[in-house]
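request received
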Amino acid sequence: MIGILILTHGAFGENLLNTACGIMHETEKIGALNLSRRSDFGTLRKKVSDMIATIGAEDGVLVLIDAYGGTSYNTTLPLMGTHRISLVTGVNLPMVLSALTNRHRMALEPLARKVSEDAKKTISVLSPSDIAR
Amino acid sequence: MTKKDYVISNRLGLHARPASLFVKTTSRFTSAVKIIKDGQEIDGKSIMGLLMLAAGPGTPLTITADGPDEADVLKALDDLFERHFDDDIDGD
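response:
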């Protein structure tokens, strides 16, 4: 099974994961970290590396990050050379739900593309005409 | 292929938790499942597909199942709809 790790500024990643897991009733091979504290990249990188090891997913870990170019992104990008991970930025609830649903039946790279597409599909601007639907 | 009409009967509609239950149910079977709402057809094993339907209370849906266990899928869905997706007042 593919593991899921959410990395965010502040605790919202942990809350997001708890919410998604509550909906999906999933608890295996998941984790979340708050990387907003002021630490050097080496310390943060070790924290992420240790969490990937703790999740211990034999098929790799899908890492979902809040902001492209942010601390989580800069921390984790170099780990792609040494760990079996895929990174997707812009994490939101639909992305996590998609990851929890599809990780049982997809390989790591296709799963990363799938959750990215699913998350984008759910971002909409609604107009008054949508009320009639 | 087997086809059946349903109406969303729980008071909060097909929100995240019922959608998750729906997908977990259909994924237990090998048959392909499609949901049709207002001419829009989605994969009945995709939670995102279900959420994107935005099916509120009273929404009519047509569900098709196609495969060796198609009758069993619809029987399991009959049960889900009768149980109102085990939904409570705290909808998401």
